[in-house]
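Usage

Read records sequentially. Each one opens with the input sequence:
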Amino acid sequence: MKQKRKSNLSRLLFGVGRLSQRIRNINILLFLLAFSVMAGVMLTAFSSIISGISSDYAGRSAASSADSLSARITKEISLLAAAARSNAVTGWLMDEDNDEKQSSAYNEMLATMNELYSNNLYVVVGESLNEYKIEDDYSITRGFFQFDTLHADAPLDAWYFDSITTDNEYMLNVAMDRLLERKRVWINYTVKVDGVPIGLLCTGLEFSHIAGELFSIYDFDNTRGMIIDENGLIIIDSYLLEDEVFLHQEIESMFEDAFSEPALIEAMWEHLDGINGHFEGVSAPVVIKLTSDPYHFATIAPIRHTNWSAVIIYDSSSSLDIPLFIPITVAMLFVLIIFALATNAISYRLIFLPLGKLRQSLSRLKEDKEEDVYGSDRDDELGELSNAIMDWFNKANYDALTGIHNRRYMENNFQHIMEYLSRSGGVLSVFMVDVDYFKKYNDNYGHEQGDVCLKTIAQSVNSSVTRTGDFAARYGGEEFALILPSTDKAGACLVADKLLDIVRSQGLPHAASDVAEFVTVSVGVTTGCVKFGQRWEEYIKRADEALYLSKQNGRNRYTFLAMDV
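and closes with the structure output:
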């Protein structure tokens, strides 16, 4: 029973019947299979999407982003802390003019700078308030470059005094890099000896690096990300990372000035009121579902080891976790590839392989080889096509009555033969053959017997052709033509004699003939070297002139006239 079912399926797919039906059945079967698999994959994907845009997923995404930035800042702080506790750095900050201590401190701080993600390090000496930049070039003042001296009453220098008076070991702020004239996020680490501040180590993080750590899992086109300090001041705004005014000028903007969504503003101030020092440990992000376009969700996530918060506002599509869709995409791609390969294999077997065989058989047929057109015995569209092509080929190239080539075939191929021979000055012979007193034959025996006579003469003419490339054609009425490429005069005369003998041997009675008691033919032969630009009609005309002379000289003979006169 199982074998029978398999046989029925094979018959349905590859058995007899319409080709279009088989292909349709196979495509429907494969499509249903692929659709079922892909539908299951898509349901899984949609389930993940729905989960991804939920409040829980939004919160986890924001927390992950905040933790990523926190990890970056924590690493920078740990490097500054290690340098701040080294004897070389503290020794030089307490004895700024000591060259030996300065050199030792430079080596220590250069090693620290090379490990910093931002790759920059500044030092403020507490006693002199001189500010230095560490350069990776020992030739510049032993590697130090002093570019400023701070002043207690200067508003732009207040960051230093705020840093050394804070209860925390470090402080974060946004300020201009005076050398680069560009704002950065600064980590200011206080250097202390016995609890007394003696200076500051500072490194500045690029806004783009901060944004990269914070917003890397989101689609920037549909996301707006901010870092807000404990006072609600916007530290970084992803929408302004390319804004030269924002990057190069001291501009302060509050969070509530950037958005008008009441729920978000209320949640933000409630979050800010609860800040007391740096965030430590794990704090759950606040998730707010928005009602106004273009955004749908907002999250407020504390950044550990700072008193800053990440605020991320996005629509549903930007909350998608792209890596989540990699397995789904691979699975769908795999299904599509299998579908394409299966369809291709079946299409090749049912369509392209048979069509290739049909093309090959037509090519051989075109070369005048004995060839059956492939597929003529099939019962599908290919069989219909093969038979239609064969029928068209026969009608286009063969005379319906005699079965030999017709005049159209001769005209289509004659000039190609001429062009081929003209390249090498090849020789060509052309015959014109006419049945003697054929009108009298028809009048005496009737048109039906006249057709039999023409068929017999046509076969006699055709049987005199023995080489590939030679061909005979019915020129019109009782006239026939013989085209013999690469045949000289001697060869043509031999063929003419042979042709006359074949016709005479048929012994077709012709009581009305003035030449003989049987049917005879008159032949005109011409031979010449084909010249470039020469037309086939010239050879026909010359052979016709020779035929006229054969008739004038008593018929039942051939006359030769050379083309080159």
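Summary fields computed downstream for this record:
- The mean pLDDT is 81.
- Residues 2-51+323-364 form one domain.
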